[in-house]
Write a structure and sequence with these properties.
Largest interface: A-B, 32 and 32 residues
Strand content of chain A: under 5%
Helix content of chain A: 55-70%
Organism (chains A, B): Streptosporangium carneum
CATH architecture of the largest domain in chain A: Orthogonal Bundle
Oligomer: homodimer
CATH superfamily of the largest domain in chain A: Tetracycline Repressor, domain 2
Radius of gyration of chain A: 20 Å
Pfam family, one (chains A, B): TetR_N
Protein name (chains A, B): TetR family transcriptional regulator
GO molecular function, one term (chains A, B): transcription cis-regulatory region binding
Shape of chain A: globular
Keywords (chains A, B): DNA-binding, Transcription, Transcription regulation
CATH topology of the largest domain in chain A: Tetracycline Repressor, domain 2
Mean pLDDT of chain A: 89
Low-confidence stretches of chain A: 1-12
Order of helices and strands of chain A: HHHHHHHHHHH
Number of helices of chain A: 11
Chain lengths: ~210, ~210
DNA sequence: TCTGAAACTGTAATCATTATAGATTCAGAT
DNA sequence: ATCTGAATCTATAATGATTACAGTTTCAGA
């Protein structure tokens, strides 16, 4: 029991094996982030990362089957869950799109309310094409999950193309608005478009509902 | 002059050098398509393709700097031009979105009005993740061009996030709707969404304008 | 005919990724 | 306390895409 705190506070609670595994995985992430920040993504080889984390290359790929880009993303599967949960647990009276807008605004590139370490990571991702791409891939991977939540909450079929399109378009927003000078304003503009549709003339724009 | 027809009908009209270059490029595309169709994308190496086209690997990459996926796309830069032109040259009274909807419906995965060779190519692309990805990349590369046309035609700034988002969302449609059982119906559903916005309840859907 | 650029070649790198086969370590059962 | 199988890790050697290089051939234009 006294070992628990040695390796981290919120491990899955099983044996030493799992702790060591997580330890290795974290060592890899941290080594990768450190080296990427110092020499740029393309200036670092997976061999160097493995060395820095003191594991073999084979071990590196065992921990990160998706390859080099995935090294600094430890949370791949979680993101779609946040959004789906935001839709399901939204307060009564709030529309599906409103809940998505708020949830998204609190994440990723849209807030500066982050510890400096995460901010450095975000900046690295935003400024590295390969990492931007991979980040998008992670978001899009949640399309099915999000579409299901949207369908349930709006009384449509999950295979309804409108549902799938909305899910996809929402998940594209980080990649689309994340590089703008004012990401939050950009995010709101895109959600306005999704809520109200494209007004043929700029004059027709109406105030944002809600 | 009598050599013109030997190598093709619509070469850029300069010397033999250009003709041979185009000839080589076409040999590569055709070899790649043939081998991909026969053994699957992952079942073919660039070395095999180079062999089949009777050029060295270095030459292959000189012709196709974007790599293996680009081999069967000889028209990368043209696609955004079609769409931008469709927006600019639309008949009076037709909305920007209407023109895009019609132009898109005539292309890529949305029509079967294609020669069998192109149909085989399209099926290969749709059924191969790496090629789908690359095709999307080509579409998205035209975002700036399309955004500019949309901005001009609708009296907005090209940097307006709404414009950029619309351009992006339109260009995502092939990848989004192209794999549906009825791609054309899917395309129309997505355009309806972009025109009218997301109706919180399915009941609110209005007839498609125009 | 001469000359420089363009296109091509073979060869050898670099790098990510996967396969293999053996060693070590741990969890759970005896 | 010991045994056993699975998980983890290792070194090593492929494979395959991509790039660098240095030299050759071929063409266009002076």
């Amino acid at each position: 029991m006294r070992f628990r705190l040695r390796y981290g506070v919120d491990m899955p609670t099983t044996g030493r094996r799992e702790r060591k595994k997580a330890q290795t995985r974290r060592a890899l992430s941290e080594a990768a982030l450190r080296l990427f920040c110092e020499h740029g993504y393309d200036g670092v080889t997976v061999a160097q990362i493995a060395d820095e984390a003191d594991v073999s290359i084979a071990t590196l790929f065992a921990h990160v089957p998706d390859g080099k880009e995935a090294l600094i993303f430890d949370d791949g599967a979680e993101r779609p869950v946040w959004l789906a949960a935001a839709v399901r647990d939204r307060p009564p009276g709030q529309s599906v799109l409103q809940s998505l807008r708020r949830c998204m605004a609190a994440r990723g590139p849209f807030t500066n309310d982050l510890p400096p370490e995460l901010r450095r990571k975000r900046d690295l991702i935003v400024s590295t094409p390969a990492l931007r791409e991979y980040s998008r891939k992670l978001w899009i991977a949640g399309e099915g999950t999000l579409a299901e939540a949207i369908a349930t909450e709006s009384g449509r079929a999950p295979s309804d193309m409108t549902v799938r399109a909305l899910a996809r378009y929402v998940l594209e927003i980080p990649g689309l608005a994340g590089t703008e000078p004012d990401p939050l304003a950009a995010l709101n503009a895109v959600f306005d478009l999704l809520e109200s549709g494209w007004p043929e003339s700029p004059e027709e724009v109406t105030d944002r509902p809600g």
